[in-house]
From TrEMBL:
The keyword rRNA processing does not apply. Belongs to the DCC1 family. The keyword Zinc does not apply. The gene is Dscc1. GO terms for cellular component: chromatin; chromosome, centromeric region; Ctf18 RFC-like complex. Keywords: DNA replication. This is Sister chromatid cohesion protein DCC1. It comes from the Eukaryota. InterPro entries: Dcc1. GO terms for biological process: DNA replication; maintenance of mitotic sister chromatid cohesion.
Amino acid sequence: GAMRSRAEVDATLQTAKLNPAELLPAVHCLSFGPQAGAGECCLLQLEPGLCAELEAGRSLVIRGEKDEQAVLCSKDKTYDMKIADTSNMLLFIPGLKTPDELDTDQPSCNIIHSQIAGFSNNYWELRRCRPKLKKMRKFLMEDPYKGPDSQKDQTSTFSRYTTEDLLSLIQASEEEILHHLQVIDACKIEGYWRILDFDYEMKLLNHVTQLIDSESWSLSKVPLRTCLEELGSLEPTEMIEHILLSYGRKYIDDAGEVYFEMCEDKICRATAEMLLQNAVKFNLSEFQEVWQQSVPEGMTTRLDQLKGLALVDKSSRPETIFLLKVEDLPEDNQERFNSLFSIREKWTEVDIAPYIQDLCAEKQTVCALLTKYARSSMQNGVKVYNSRRPIS
């Protein structure tokens, strides 16, 4: 449109019954630029921390495969992206001066002509979310590492994954991915992340615990160098070191020697998994006896070492125990609860907690999750939870 004059502006103000004395003297006349279209620009609402990341020259990455809801990741956090619609149209005007940037001493007839470069009726809103890490284990379990002698390993046709591959496939930030690789005890073999085949892992652990036993070492002071010298002829030294890192805490003594303090709970837990993996259900008292006999001398087995790994059925006579691994359950909240309620109709909070703990968002409690996805009732004076919906 044509440029407006001051007289036209004043006439418009009069029509609108506005008193010019109450307004700033400067007037913005807006017109749409030639290429101002909707959908050309996207607005992203950032919290101050993320804004600082960008201003410091770091990048934010949007991750996800075609069938997934997109997430945005910084170096160490993951955010869900949701479109928020606005009732007011948002206009993009390059070089726009806000009222406090205007020079107040300018003559009163000041008219500023601004062109609108684009507009939008919505923006992307970010919400901190749990990293979606479930797929990582699934990918790495396609082709577990069975050791250097395994013929299958040379001829395997499965894809293998580098750090870059995981960064492009997993909806999580780089730090969350690298941390999770440690949690699942993955190790890098020839540049690819691998998970050890469970039987091979047990074989390695066995070598180490037998050596500890034969040398009568303290479980809190296992020397790396001697382990590598003694076991190096049986297995690659990097595998021996990996198993020590997986089942122990590394430290250096005053003389600069590297030692490991073996983690009792983790070794007991792995031993239990080995015993339970071949049975559908196991008589609880028999299991506890065999389990205690199977762990290294000086270690004590306790049922609370099996949280999120095995479940005791107190209703059967005699009581039984069976394998139920939290990592085998769905990642989505509702699907997780559906699957738990199909395994067992009523749960106590103590029993279900290890199976939903990982679903808790920041500052969310197990109780809050249960309130949302389950209904509670009293059974013999104990509070139990069951499904809010019929389970097919």
